[in-house]
Specification:
alpha/beta, Aminopeptidase, Alpha-Beta Plaits, 2 domains, four-stranded antiparallel β-sheet, elongated, binds zinc ion
Amino acid sequence: MLHDNTKARLADFDDRKEELTAIRHYLHQNPELSHKEEKTARFVADKLKSWGYDVTENVGGYGVVAVLSNGTSKRGIAIRADMDALPIREETGLDHASANDGVMHACGHDGHTTILLGAAEYLARTRRFDGTLTLIFQPAEEAGTTSGAQKMIEDGLLERFPFDMIFGLHNHPGAPEGQILLREGPLMAAADTVEVLVKGRGGHASRPHLTVDPLVTACHMVVALQMVVSRFTDPTQTAVVTVGTIHAGEAVNVIPETARFAITVRSFDEDVRANLETRIRQMIASVAAGHGAVAEVDYQRGHPVVFNAAEPTALARSVAEELVGEDNVGTCNLIPGSEDFSHYLEFRPGCFVRLGNGVDSAVLHSSKFDFADESLTVGAALWARLAERFLEEDAG
Ligand SMILES: [Zn+2]
Ligand SMILES: [Zn+2]
């Protein structure tokens, strides 16, 4: 068979393995927290500039956007990698362990960034595409309601750097290295946080009839909230309502004035999500009323559902099968964690891909976690070939 050098193949990245591993280890050794990725962003921007990209820095914080156009097509694809690390003290004992004490790439964003750099170098060198390539190196994925995707969108990302479709990936502990997992439709959960302040009337613990006990009220609320999923959510749907904290009282002989608790709410469907909010608010209000107390509810909407559209997911699956074979492409189960990539998907169709990090990999956010270097070239080849396929030169 003739050597096919007209498209990106996995083998094209074989001789890049060492270089990509070195980049990944450098990033792993020099982790930076959300909103503080100054050096990481500069490192990324310098490389992209050296390969001929039109680079814009400081987009929504330390975000870096690299654009490369080729040919005449108006089509555009965006690929995003996240760059931030976590406030965790690394315990891997590896040679390339964090040199920044108390900060660690425990979610593998060092790997995601390296993969996109690998694809960037390849695509700039080969230029077998017709259209515009937009590479988004995003800060602060781990930052909750002030996360990088939201900040970059607020800073005009979609208007300043137009694209038709967007892709991103996350490593996946538990799946073999290099395996690619996909799921059309909902993949990762919407995550909302609810803070509840129960106001009663404090007094002497021996005379409860003269008080409104916020502690007992809050306890009833916690129990009542267990009904929100079991009795008020469609059983064919999935949701989680977990009360993660509760605080009330200082002394055994005092009924306190207030009690506080906080809830995390996870769902995979916008209607379910809206219903959960309605039911949680109703439940808290009615239990408060029954106890003669008042409850203040601060309902904070977090990241929406990561929803993979049909067309980009089919494209990603086809490219994945082309690169690693059908046997190494699987269907991903629903993941109750959340991801700020979902914000891009509210504006553009796209697909979030999961890439195996090894069956024995430590879990994400563990002090023992490390990104699997074996997956670097698979990820880079996936992005390179995906860009070529979406921006096919003879597509017209
Ligand atoms: Zn994470
Ligand atoms: Zn992550």
